Amino acid sequence: GESVGLHLPTLSVQEGDNSIINCAYSNSASDYFIWYKQESGKGPQFIIDIRSNMDKRQGQRVTVLLNKTVKHLSLQIAATQPGDSAVYFCADLGGRYKLIFGSGTRLLVRP
Amino acid sequence: ETGVTQTPRHLVMGMTNKKSLKCEQHLGHNAMYWYKQSAKKPLELMFVYNFKEQTENNSVPSRFSPECPNSSHLFLHLHTLQPEDSALYLCASCPREGLYNEQFFGPGTRLTVL
Question: Between chains, do B45 and A99 touch, taking CB under 8 Å as contact?
Answer without folding.
Answer: yes
